[in-house]
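Our platform keeps sequence and structure together, in a single record for each protein. Such a record has a labelled line for the sequence and another for the backbone structure tokens. This encoding replaces a full spatial description with a residue-level series of whole-number codes. Below, we set out a record of this kind in full and without editing:
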Amino acid sequence: MIIKRVQLIMFGTIYGIKHYVVVPIVVLLLGCSVPVSAQENPWIFGLYTHGYHFLTGNVLELARLLVNVPVSKATDGIVPIDIVPLNLHYMSFKDNGEHVDYKMGNPYGFTSYDLFNDVEAGLKFGWQGAESLVGAYMYGAYCINQHKTRFLGNLEYDKHKIQSWKIGLGVRISPLRFLMDDYDWCPIVELGTSYVHNFKYKGPNGSDIDQLNNGMRTNYAIGILFDEGEQSLLLCMDMAHYNLFNKNYTPDGGFWYPYANFKNQDYYFSLRYSFTLDN
């Protein structure tokens, strides 16, 4: 089964959960009301967070704001804020060419399984000059992911829980920045890559970390920069370049290879609005 997961994060009336809109409103009001000194320092340093669950993602964004505002005030820098109103997760598993049922958590659920799917927290360091055509960043983060699969012949879903470290870097390029002078907007492109190292796993075949592969992901984004470079709107794609499960893994010395014919595809698509806090 192929999974497509859509989260409309900023619009809390989806699925009748109107009270969810409180968190993003708090983030926006706090962001717009906290004065931050005008940018003198092009270096950016602070907390990095990311979450795909509606509630978790917004709470993490609020925590990031509360930490990064004092840092920016102390360093005469800026605070970049990212709002993701739309996420689409596309993932498929195949075993010997046959689709394996795959289930993510409920993006509006309240169990720990739902709330702590696709969560990342760490530090981010970057440089973005106010008039520069190129910006760059790097980050390191702790990640946790949970999902369920139902292997061929099984009646019940098995739960997988993965903890990993991720390190990434990327660039933001706006080669037509001169358009900003006449039209107050210009195109922008982001290119990035990251390495995922899984260090802890719990699944239906035990907790041996050798069941999993580590590997690279790349992300691409294209959009527009406007408001003198203070705001941007981007369409983003992130894709994995490795199979999650190790086809050479054997728990019994070579008699059984549970993932010998396993393959998977893993993509994230999102719409991201970014702005900076300053005077």
Q: What stands out?
A: The helical segments are 22-33, 54-75, 112-115, 179-183. Residues 1-38 have pLDDT under 50 and may be disordered. The radius of gyration is 20 Å. The CA atoms of residues 120 and 232 lie 22 Å apart.
